[in-house]
């Protein structure tokens, strides 16, 4: 990560440094990695994240690498960025169709804005994809194909894609605007979700995945951070098909896609994958929702996903229902043939569990 940062390969630097620090607190061994991550975030313009990391480092060691000075600079840059965002709010793109109202968030998939579609008079989530996309013709071709496939998905459990293309020199996707929070944020704030709540969420995710898989579309990056929990208590999966594209853009080649903490063994090894890679990632996600933590988060995480049996969730939460534990462990089988072969099988397991009284109605 440090090598990539010094070479100004910021997306790769941030990715590797995030893997290095994981979700561990700042300590004497990882403080420098956190510091480099904050610098890389700042260099890429992610000042809010830079400020947050510098504050964590300063809480650990006030004098570490003159962190107070770096924090002051990052706060000033963030203030300037927010002022510029306010100044440009209401800016209309040249085509006149999308009027940007404000920023919703930033991540590896690009910047997401709240925007008004002036043609259809509705609010949308307007995602501007990384600029590297236009430097890679094959990735651009793949983007348009993936966007077309995603737009064909019409299911209440999937965030709807309305439109995609190029505007104002950037490639974008216009999507359904979902009010709510991600499952990841819920776990971060509240910890493990009660078993009946997990069953409720998972049943909705399984319905959405079954629909997409039957249309021969795999997500490739299922995780709580990619699943919204709406204000009316519905789960909606985001970013279908974008994981593979973004990795191609980042690396200028077709490589492993997805997020290391949730990736299936075959995905980790760069093998050809099918819908069963989503079933593995779903198992990891259920593990996190049910226990409040990830099955593998220390050491060489990709190695563990390929070679290390998943820990028994009961060791973390002894009161979990046996059916939930069974679903988690079968989803996380190393061999795709040993997993559920469709999420409809998981739904059937839960239906039978409800009849037997293993799940509260």
Summary of the model, kept short:
By secondary structure, the chain is an alpha+beta fold. It has 14 helices and eight strands.
Structural overview:
The protein has 14 helices and eight strands. The chain is of the alpha+beta class and 361 residues long. The strands form two sheets. It has a five-stranded antiparallel sheet with strand order 1-2-3-5-4. The longest helix is centred in the N-terminal third of the chain and has 22 residues. It is globular and about 60 Å long. The termini are far apart. About 4% of the residues have low confidence.
SSE blueprint and pairings:
Layout: H1 2-6, H2 10-21, H3 31-43, H4 47-60, H5 67-88, E1 98-107, E2 110-117, E3 122-128, H6 137-151, E4 161-167, E5 170-176, E6 180-182, H7 183-190, H8 195-214, E7 227-230, E8 235-237, H9 242-251, H10 265-268, H11 276-291, H12 301-307, H13 322-331, H14 343-355
Antiparallel strand pairs: 1-2, 2-3, 3-5, 4-5, 6-7, 7-8
Helix pairs in contact: 2-3, 3-4, 4-5, 6-9, 8-11, 8-14, 11-13
What is the H/E string? Answer: HHHHHEEEHEEEHHEEHHHHHH
Net shape: globular
Which strand order do you get reading across the main beta sheet? 1-2-3-5-4
Number of helices: 14
User: How many strands, which pairing sense, and closed or not: the largest β-sheet?
Assistant: 5 strands, antiparallel
| Count of strand segments | 8
Q: What distance separates the N and C termini?
A: 48 Å
- On the 0-100 scale, what is the average pLDDT? 86
Report the sheet-strand fraction. Answer: 5-15%
Structural class: alpha+beta
The helix content is: 40-55%
